[in-house]
Structure formats: structure tokens, C-alpha cells
Amino acid sequence: MAKAASRRHAPASGARRIETPPPAQGGRGVPFLLGLCCGIALTLLFTRGEDRTLESPLPKAGTASIPEVRFEFPEVLRDAEVLVPYVEEYLDGEAKPEEVGEYLLQAGAFRNAEDADRRRAMILLQDLPARTVAVRRDGGTWHRVLVGPFENRRTARAAQLALLREDIDSLVLRSEP
Predict the structure, then answer these.
(1) Distance of CA 99 to the CA centre of its chain
(2) Do residues 81 and 149 touch, judged by C-beta distance below 8 A?
(3) Spelled out in words, what is the top-level CATH class assigned to the domain 106-175?
(4) Do the strands 140-150 and 130-137 form a parallel or antiparallel pair, or are they unpaired?
(5) Distance CA 147, CA 166 (A)
(6) Which of 23, 37, 79, 170 is the most buried (most CB within 10 A)?
């Protein structure tokens, strides 16, 4: 009967099943310790006998001089020519006579008339004189917002700074008399 019971559980191919014992509870520590010991042994093997001293990249006193370092960029700057735009406000010293004419600020150019009127209203709220002018360019109509006129450059610049405080960029235009 024992033979019959073993035949029932045996695989059909005739191979016998080999049972392995369950793993021990402390089985993980042994491979770790073995690897740690091998690592220490290899480190000692490769570093044994070598005299490791840090060498300075600078030459020792009395042996050789430090190679001379030469920077080229002062020569490049000396030979470079920088063109600075001419800006009247940045000039110090002598005052230049004002040019004759009226100054205007262009605070935008819009294809839509409603956008130009909205910008003009924002400028009028700042107590600055503003108007819109329709100009035909490139087959279409542009609506320019003009601020002014101002009698000198200084008042035009003050108005331009007031517009900048409201995030409105503008261009200074000068009209001939």
C-alpha cells in the first residue's frame, strides 16, 4: 500500500522529487559577513606595500620655477572698440541748448480703434494730453496714440517716466516747427 501511495504523488515522467530543507533563520547574515571579510582582505592586499603620499602640484622650493601664466583678455579689451549710443540725458557738465520744436510721445500703435481709445483713456487718467491719429500704412490703418505736445525735451521725459510707472512704453518724437 505504501507503494501505491508513493505512485500517486510521484510525477508522471518517473523522476523523483527531492525535498530541500527549509532555510535557517540566521541565513542572511553569513553571506553578508563573508562579503565584508573578502572586501577588507582585498583592500589590504592592494594597498599593502604602497606608500601613498599626496604630492603638491606646485614644484618644491629650489627645483623648478612656476610656469608663467599669460592672460590675453586685457589685450583683447584694449583693442576692442565699443560704440555707445548718444543719449542726451547721460551727458554731464555743459548743458546743450534745446532744439527748437515740439516733442510728442507715441504710446502705442493699434490696428483696432477700440484698443487705441482704451490706451488713450488710461493716459488721460494720468492728466496727460492724449489723442489718437489714424495712419494708413502697408495696406492697412494703424491707430497711433500720441501724448503731448511738450515744449521741451525735459517735460517730454517727465511724461515718459509717468507712463512707465503705469507700464506704458513710449517713444519720443520731435516735430519740426
Answers:
(1) 43
(2) no
(3) alpha beta
(4) antiparallel
(5) 14
(6) 170
Coil/strand/helix, residue 51: coil
Say which DSSP state 54 is in.
P
Express each pLDDT in 52-79 by its tens digit.
665 666 656 656 666 777 777 767 667 6
Amino acid (1-letter code) at residue 74: P
Grid coordinates of 30: 553569513
Q: What is the pLDDT of residues 133-150, one digit of tens each?
A: 999 988 899 999 999 888
Amino acid at 157: R
In the three-class reduction of DSSP (H, G, I as helix; E, B as strand; rest coil), residue 77 is classed as helix
| Count of all residues that appear for the chain in the document | 177
CA distances from 165 to 24, 112, 126, 149, 159 (A): 80, 24, 11, 20, 10
Provide the grid cell at 152: 521741451
C-alpha cell read off for 113: 480703434
Cα separation, 33 vs 41, in Å, equals: 12
Considering only the C-alpha atoms of the chain, give the largest distance between any 2 of them, rounded to a whole number of Å.
129
Degrees, nearest 5: CA angle 56-58-62 = 115
Sole residue written with cell 487705441: 116
Q: What is the DSSP string of 8-32?
A: HHS-TTSPPP-PPPPPPTTTTHHHH
Look at residues 174, 147, 151, 175 and name the one whose alpha carbon lies nearest to residue 161.
147
pTM for the structure as a whole = 0.46
